[in-house]
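Hi V.,

You were right to ask for the full record rather than a summary. Here it is.
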Amino acid sequence: MNFTNNVSRKKIMAFAGLVWFVYVIFHMLSLLVFHSGHEVFNQFYDWINHLAVYHLLVLILIALLVFHVGSAISRQLRNNVSKGQSYKKPYPLAIPRIVAWGGVGALLLFIVFHLYANHLFSAAHVVCLFIRIGHVKCASTSWTG
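Predicted structure:
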């Protein structure tokens, strides 16, 4: 497959987006474990975090995210200069450009922060934080934050 070809880049970009979509669905469904109690939640996320392929999967997700974002930006920049003024079309009035790119930027910042925050807090800290949000005293961990 020729990676300089726009069609190939679009296919790989779509594949990267699909992998991220599947991951987000898995992540949302796995968060339902929270309703089973803090012990089950801790055990599940300790099991996930100690899988032999966990770090490999995280690196693959980060690489796919970087490729997806980089491809989107390079395609947009190429489209802007490919045929000059005759190629440029007015952006749809339904979604202003600042809103579309602002949403993409906010999503990207959220993903980066979320990946970073997962390495700062353990599962017990997250459970305790959610319990504190619900105004219930958290005595199951030694975390005081």
